[in-house]
Amino acid sequence: MSFHFFHVINGHLNVEDIPLAVLVERFGTPLYVYSRAALTHAYQAYARACAGRNARIHYAVKANSNLAVLNVFARLGAGFDIVSGGELARVHAAGGRADQIVFSGVGKQKDEMRAALRANMCCFNVESIPELHRLNEIAAETGMCARIALRVNPDIDARTHPYIATGLKTDKFGIAFDNARAAAHTAAALSHLNLVGLACHIGSQITTTAPYLEALDKMLALIDTIEAAGVALSHLDIGGGLGIHYHAEGDADAEPLPEIGAFVSTLLDYVEQRGHAQRTLLFEPGRSLVGNAGVLLTRIEYLKQNGEKRFAIVDAAMNDLARPAMYRAYHEITPVVQRDGLTPVLYDVVGPVCESSDWLGRNRPLAVQPGDLLAVHGAGAYSFAMSSNYNTRPRAAEVMVDGTQAYLIRERETVKQLFAGEACLPIKN
Ligand code: LLP
Description:
By secondary structure, the protein is of the alpha/beta class. Helices cover 28% and strands 25% of the residues. It is built from 12 helices and 21 strands. Strands 4, 14, 15, 16, 17, 18, 19, 20 and 21 form a 9-stranded mixed sheet that branches. Strands 5-6-7-8-9-11-12-13 form an 8-stranded parallel β-barrel, surrounded by 6 helices. Helix 2 (36-50) runs parallel beside helix 9 and helix 5 crosses helix 6. The protein is globular, with a radius of gyration of 23 Å.
């Protein structure tokens, strides 16, 4: 059972060249650990498939926005896809190039627009007519012209979890497909906007290429109609969304997935076949770049049994990893150090938070004792990034491993930090 850069040697789970148990001794639990080699490997799969083609990669910062992760991608030459002023600041701080940033999101605020204009970013992906007008006003105010793409909702069923499908017409995202032509004309007529492309994003954890081809089909036809009316469009942003394995390789339940390289080439070939070779295709991958590059390490505090049900109560919780509680998402869970001579029994792996949805895995066969360490796999994407302080729980530390070296890339929060900005009322009696 393995996830590429996380592998078992003599019963010990290692990341690259370091046993994870050693990292726990140094940094404690709960602990997020990322492999630089895994990040690089995933990025290079995209980059190789894009080499010599008319394509660019914009890492979706929301998946994992730690500065060290962003810095690894910036050094590899990635562009970025952001959704807030905060993410813009992170990309800056991590050394990412502003002219390689696209700014997505349905609710861009005026200050965020100003900051993005000042940064001279690559492109705003505009999601509504009111946003077009707001951006035009802000650009006029700052004496600039904003490069924009229209994010269109192509009404495609991405066949994924409903909470992470984004490209159906009942979703809040993008401009309705049937209104896109009119929106393009509105945009082209606004003095401080420069319409340069179209964008779409159909969802996340998508495990086949087919919904992308459907989206491309519709989007390329739309580009043809808009260009026929005299508006030139230089790029198409196809969004992110390629899924990852949450079950270990070799498991019967492992998700059937296209290889990253094959996925990218299929899309680029399709764009060429449709006579759009001159058009730049932008990819905004998040999960497929970082998801399998990370684990969450946690220690078993107690084992307990309520009737027939056995629980392994661990020191990580839904505030550290919300995906199981939010989407009933499956994450593989394995011991960090395997025990011999103990028969596995089925446990629900649960945290200390006061919610019944606070579980990390259900009915998992584990041969464990109190005090043992568990690794929750597939925890590089939407994991730390979605963590919270619910139950006044300080967020976990994050570590990045590079060969034989481990670097603390985010300190564990302290309880004091959590209420540092709070104050009691000045009540006299
Ligand atoms: N571009 C846009 C405009 C997006 O909204 C997203 C993700 C991406 C790119 C990156 O998609 P990816 O390659 O990572 O699938 N919290 C959920 C996932 C939400 C995805 C939101 N949008 C989860 O934990 O599964």
